[in-house]
Amino acid sequence: MDAPNLFVRMLILVILYECGLKSGVHASTIEQIGSLVEGPLENQSSISLSFKGLSGPIPPELGSLINLDYSLVLAYNNLSGPIPPELGSLTNLIYLDLSNNKLSGPIPPELGSLTNLRDLDLTYNRLSGPIPRELGSLTNLTGLHLASSGLSGPIPPELGSLTNLADLDISFNDLSGPVPPELGSLTNLPGFSIIYTNVSGPIPPELGSLTNLTYVDLRSNNFSGPIPPELGSLINLAGLYLSGNKLSRPIPPELGSLINLADLYLHRNDLSGPIPPELGSLTNLTDFLTNLTSLDLSHNNLSGPIPPEIGSLTKLTSLDLSHNNFFGPIPPELNNLTSLTELKISGNNLSGPIPPSFCRFYRSSFSPGNLELVCNNCGYSSLCGAVPPSSWSPSPPSSTSPPPPVGPIVGAVAAGAASLLAVAILGY
Fold first, then answer.
1. How far apart, in whole angstroms, are the C-alpha atoms of residue 347 and residue 333?
2. Cis, peptide link before residue 368, omega less than 30° from 0
3. How far apart are CA 83 and CA 107, in angstroms?
4. How far is the C-alpha of 327 from the C-alpha of 192, rounded, in Å?
């Protein structure tokens, strides 16, 4: 073949390739899908193509596949562009999973027409705009997964109509405004989690109606006002995580009814005030909370002495009362906490000797702060807070006690120590 003919053929191939790039992107996506299923695309009742390396936009033509009546799963690919509103025509669809892609734009309100849908998963995308109120029409939904999707705006109260929901995850978005009280109708939820968003306002007392809850996780938001006493009705609760908010006022004594509570996170709020007198009559409070394994009341404005009743929480492995205004001695009853592996009481106004059993903890457990705490019985100089950091005993390596994924773990209160629970936990 002579050089001119070879050049012409190569030029034709380049032109055809360029035309394909400019006009065939959409077609290539539908072709990718068609090549990965058995039989004609229009005959499929289910399409499940996770981890297939699909790229490009989701073809709107998928909305015309009238036989698609079970599932459309395109998760864990490289799909981009908007979610086609045409998918709202797949009214018999039961499962729709478009998670872990690069989809953008708003969630089309047309998805509210998928009234047979039981599970909708759009997590880990690059969406924008609000959660459509039309999703409240999906009354057969048992799972709604919208976490880490770039969504913003308020939580629509219409989601309270999804009474069959057993899994709701809308965390790690830029949501705003209050949590609608209508969500108190979601009585089938085993857990209620809205973390790392910008929701604000009070914690709705209606959450106290969700008696099947085993955990409530509202960490790292902008909640303000008091902790609702209605949360004391959640007798199946094993974890209550309210840290990193702007909660204030007293901690309700009703929390002493949470007999199954193992973790209580109240740190990094603005809890303060006196110990509620009601706690003095809760003679069984300590017994109620003996399942606590970690208690974190750090970074509040709690004051008063550390209640000796904390020594009854013999299952505690972690106790953090640091950065408050506690004063007085460390109660000798805390020697009973033989399971403790982590102790933090620095940043207070404690005085007197360190209990002998606490000498096993590093100097950083007690300092800075606590200028009148006597440490010489542990081999430290006489006043814990009077020694410059350079002369402290070494702190443990960070790897020995890594922080929890989304916030420090705090155990529950031994409110039997109506005192502590009140003082400490009752961070007013």
1. 21
2. yes
3. 7
4. 36
SS (H, E, C) the chain: CCHHHHHHHHHHHHHHHHHHHHHCHHHHHHHHHHHCCCCCHHHCCEEECCCCCCEEECCHHHHHCCCCCCEEECCCCEEEECCCHHHHHCCCCCEEECCCCEEEECCCHHHHHCCCCCEEECCCCEECCCCCHHHHHCCCCCEEECCCCCCEEECCHHHHHCCCCCEEECCCCEEECCCCHHHHHCCCCCEEECCCCCCEECCCHHHHHCCCCCEEECCCCEEEECCCHHHHHCCCCCEEECCCCEEECCCCHHHHHCCCCCEEECCCCECCCCCCHHHHHCCCHHHHCCCCCEEECCCCCCEECCCHHHHHCCCCCEEECCCCEEEECCCHHHHHCCCCCEEECCCCEEEEECCHHHHHCCHHHCCCCCCEEECHHHCCCCEHHHCCHHHCCCCCCHHHCCCCCCCCCCECCCCCCHHHHHHHHCCC
Say if CB 101 and CB 79 are below 8 A apart.
Answer: yes
Summarize pLDDT for 138-192 with one digit per residue, the tens. 999 999 999 999 999 999 999 999 999 999 999 999 999 999 999 999 999 999 9
With pLDDT > 90 as the criterion, what percentage of the chain qualifies? 48
Note the pLDDT of residue 2. Answer: 56
Domains contained in the chain, CATH given? 28-176 (3.80.10.10)
Return all residues near 355 (Cβ < 8 A) that are at least 6 apart: 330, 332, 334, 335
What is the token pair recorded at 186? 């979601």
Query: Which tens digit of pLDDT belongs to each residue from 25-65?
Result: 344 688 889 888 888 988 999 999 999 999 999 999 999 99
CB 202 within 8 A of CB 222: no
1, with CB counted inside 10 A (0-12, 13-18, 19+), is exposed
Which of 89, 421, 95 has its CA nearest to residue 255? Answer: 421
